[in-house]
Amino acid sequence: MEWRTTPNRGLDPETQFVEIYRNLATLEFPWDMNQALSFALFRTYAVPSIGRLLDATGEFEHATQKRYDDTSLLLEVPLLEGFESERGKAAVRRINQMHKMYDISNDDMLYVLSTFVVVPKRWIDDYGWRAMTRAEVDSSVRYYQGLGRHLGIKQVPASYDEFADLMDDYERERFAYDPGSRRVADATMDLMAAFYPRPLKRVIDVFSRALMDDPLLDAFHYRRPSDIVQRLSRGGLRVRARVVAALPSRRRAVHVYEMSRIKSYPDGFEVERMGTFAPGCPVRHASKSSAVAAQP
Fold it and tell me: How much is the pTM?
């Protein structure tokens, strides 16, 4: 669709990768990126060492909505404001503090990071209104390489293909059934269904499973939907893509913190107060500049 303008045309993925990736997430593919990143995190639960840990925290049993909101918002702050901004640093610091409460291997951290790079590209390849450009793919890689460095992750891949190989190999070797992983997956599926009218819960459940590949379904012992349901579900997303392609370019950015599915902070949020804290861990009061209203 050449008549549609793209905000990323002419930008350099080596020096402007944050801006390019921000445009992808908020202007070009906001709905697709939100769905893809949600699926990316969901995939990680099928690795037992990850799923068991998440189940053991109790967050998915007792505070599924807040866990979803905190993850989404903390990851969005550096994207919108930069890793070196005051709030960007606070968000990364909060993520690191939470991770350090647990014994998480570099391999698991690296795998999760790889899903953020690979799953969105594959989703957009299948269901996006256009393909990502080479510069946009490279910018996604650069952005998550930067996030990986800020999270202290070692041996971060140098290219998209290396990220893809890492993710595919890790899943081939590690995907397996675990009761804790299944509980986390079920809680997440229930939350996703809760974003829609109650009568649609069964439809959303089947639709979600229809988008999952067989190794993921097997790892959770989820029933595979019929071929016709899979074709209808995936075909529906491709019809949506053609409709979106016919629309004018988006002029107003879409932000996660504005979405109706984010419910934990109706009056705005303070980065330093988000997430979980170890028992007895003091919560430092956020400075005024670290607070953000729920609406701009």
Answer: 0.90
Question: Long-range contacts for 288-294 (Cβ within 8 Å, ≥24 apart)?
Answer: 289/86, 289/87, 290/86, 290/87, 290/90, 292/87, 292/257, 292/268, 293/267, 293/268, 294/257, 294/258, 294/262, 294/265, 294/266, 294/267, 294/268, 294/269
Q: Are 111 and 105 in contact (CB under 8 A)?
A: no
Q: What is the C-alpha to C-alpha distance for residues 141 and 159, in angstroms, rounded to an integer?
A: 7
For residue 294, tell me if it sits in a domain: no
238-290: pLDDT as tens digits? 999 999 999 999 989 999 999 989 999 988 899 998 888 875 333 343 443 34
> What's the total number of domains in the chain?
1
Specify the DSSP class assigned to residue 24.
Answer: I
* Domain-embedded: residue 220: yes
Contact (Cβ atoms closer than 8 angstroms) between residue 142 and residue 62: no
Place of tokens 């019809």: 239
Q: Which of 218, 220, 232 is nearest to 189 (CA)?
A: 220
Q: Which residues are CB-contacts of 261 (< 8 A; sequence separation ≥ 6)?
A: 68, 195
Domain range for 258 is 17-267
